Each structure stands twice: as structure tokens, then as C-alpha cells.
Amino acid sequence: MSTMECTWPEKISDDRKRAINELLRGRSFTKQLRSVLVGGHQQASAPDLLEKISRSFTDTLSILSSGEADEVVSQIPASGQLYSPGWDGRRSEESGESGKSSTKDRRGCYKRRKNSQSWIRITPNFHDDSYAWRKYGQKVILNAKHQRSYYRCTHKHDQGCMATKQVQMTEDEPPMYKTTYHGQHSCKSMLKSSQIMLETSTARDSSILLSFESNNEDDSNPFFSSFPLIKQEEEIPSDGQEVTDNNHTKNNNSSSSDYLLSMELTTFESNLGSDHGDVLSGVNSSCTDSTHSLGDMMMDFEDVFIDLEC
DNA sequence: AATATTTGACCGAC
DNA sequence: GTCGGTCAAATATT
User: Fold this and answer.
1) Are the C-beta atoms of residues A210 and A105 closer than 8 Å to each other?
2) A77 CB less than 7 Å from any atom of strand B
3) Range of the domain at A76
4) Is A118 within 8 Å of A181 (Cβ atoms)?
5) Does residue A236 surpass a pLDDT of 70?
6) I need a surface site. Which of A30, A119, A274, A303 has the fewest CB within 10 A?
7) A177-222 pLDDT, tens per residue?
8) Can you tell me the distance from the alpha carbon of A120 to that of A275, in angstroms, rounded to the nearest whole number?
9) Per-residue pLDDT for A145 more than 80?
């Protein structure tokens, strides 16, 4: 039985309106924030505005995700499991009748993501993207020296967040890790705005956002979807084979793993402008001085919003 | 006890 | 059949 057949035009168009509405709100907040930061106006506090912007992104993504899926991916914490069967969905265990042949009958469980968006990121050392990840698998990959690790968002169950990532060491001489992100975080941000400011303004990193593949109309960069949740640390086992995530807020001393938000914004924007979603690369990555600050960043934000509108 | 990781099995795609 | 992605029981960690 195929689960992806029903699309509800009315619902989707309604969702689109809501999404556009959310984006407009986000743009408005962004403008306010810019005037606060640049012009020094104090109509509203920057942290408050940042929080609103973050919320706007999250809500928009949630709306768009629900339009793509058969059922709404709610952000309301669910007591049970709340999956979106959209791109990666599966029913967890037997639904109703249990105890078939083997211990757990998982037939029909897996749905390969096909048109899901993905972003590839190459980083030296491990890369801390500040989300809370939970490792759920590790595989040997053909023609690859190292195993690939699979992570899902820690809040998959409590918030229905469907973001996943894969991390694979591609080189070990200068250690290089390729991280592929799938899906977007719909989990709520719980990080304080001040921390966000701190992180973005102190970001310095030599990581490269390699590609931005988009097959769906509701794509957006996962780094936009919401602000970082919990600091995360990945560490390399002694054999250098694979990385392991840790969700705890251990005082992360790897400042090099912060990502350059402004760079990615620019990348995102240029990708939006192009008419294809294939791999784009060659982003240079060495603008690390702190003068490249929120002012510029907000400009990019605004442009992105404008592009999204039409 | 609760939460995270490991790892073999399972599944769909090719 | 192989391969890569995911599940979930067992195990480890906090």
C-alpha cells in the first residue's frame, strides 16, 4: 500500500498561505532587528526579536513539512511517536496486529528518502553544528576507508523532528569529515538568544558548505531552520575510525567547529537565485574576522526572504 | 532508572 | 544478488 498518494490541494494552499505569512513576519522581525543592531533603535530587544525570527523559521518549516507529508508534523510534543511519513516515515513496529513470524516484523517499514533535500558539509576535525543528535547506526561503505555514522535528531520522538545527518571521515591525514544533512529541524529552539548572538558573532571555522541539493519546493538550509539547541561534541575514537556524537553540554573547547553562518547565508542566497539544485561548490571560507557581523548577515536574511516570496 | 550507543538484522532500491 | 539506510535489542553510560 503506498502511503504517498494523497495530496490535498486545499490544505497545501492553505499551508502555503500560512508559510508565506510566517515568512513575512520573519522578515518584519528581521528588519526590526536590523534597525536595533545597526541603528541602535530600542523599540524591541534584539534577543526578543531573534527569538521571534527563530520561531518564524521553525513554524514555517513545520508548515511546509506538513504540506509535503500526508499528515501534519506537529510541533506539539506527542506522547507516543509522531512520525511524518513524508520522506522517511515508517511505522514503528506492528500497528495493531503483532507477533508475526519473527520477533519484530518490520516489513514495509522503510521508505527511502528520494526527493528529500540534503546538504553536504566538509569539515576538518569534527563539526559541531550545535544540534542534539542521536546516533542510530553505522555502516561500512563500499570503497570508503571509513565507516559512515548515522544520526537523527534527539527530538525525533518528543517533537517529531525528522532531521538526520550522516558523518563520514573522508581523509585522515588532515582529518576531514563529510557531513550530509537530510531534512530540517522542526524541533523547538531552547537556546537563549544571547547564546545565539555569542555563537554567531564568535564563529570561526574552516568548514565548507559543499553543496545544497534541492529537490523539493519547500527546501531551505537546515542551518536556518532553527537556532542551535544544545552544544554538541563529536569525538574521534582512538583509531580515528568514526565520530561519536554526544548530546551533553560538555564545555566544548573546539571553537573551530562553529560554523560560519554568514557564509552559509550567502551561499544559500546564491543557490536560491540559480535555477538548478545540483551540487554547487567552491565556497570560500576564510572570512573569519568578527567585523563580518550581524549587519551583513541580516542583509542576507532579508534578501533570502525576498527571494522566497516570489 | 533514564538515556545514549553499539551492532546485527531488516528493508527497499538498484 | 548487493548496497546503503534504518530499526531495535543489547549493552554502555550517566
Assistant:
1) no
2) no
3) 9-87+113-309
4) yes
5) no
6) A274
7) 889 888 877 776 444 334 434 444 444 455 666 655 555 444 445 5
8) 19
9) yes
* Pairing status of strand A208-213 against strand A118-124: antiparallel
Give strand letter and number of the nucleotide nearest A162 (CA to C1').
C6
Domain membership of residue A33 (yes or no) is yes
As for how many domains chain A has, the answer is 1
- CA–CA separation, A250 and A295 (whole Å): 31
| The residue to which cell 551583513 is assigned | A296
Number of C-beta neighbours around residue A275 at 10 A? 5
Is the CB of A200 within 7 Å of strand B?
no
Instruction: Evaluate whether residue A21 is within a structural domain.
Output: yes
Question: Per the domain annotation, does A288 fall within a domain?
Answer: yes
User: Is the minimum distance from the CB of A110 to strand C below 7 Å?
Assistant: yes
Residue A205 is classified by DSSP as B
Nucleotides of B under 7 A from a protein CB: 3-13
E-strand stretches of chain A: 118-124, 133-139, 148-153, 164-171, 176-182, 208-213, 233-235, 244-246
CA-CA distance, A194 to A192, in Å (whole number)?
Answer: 5
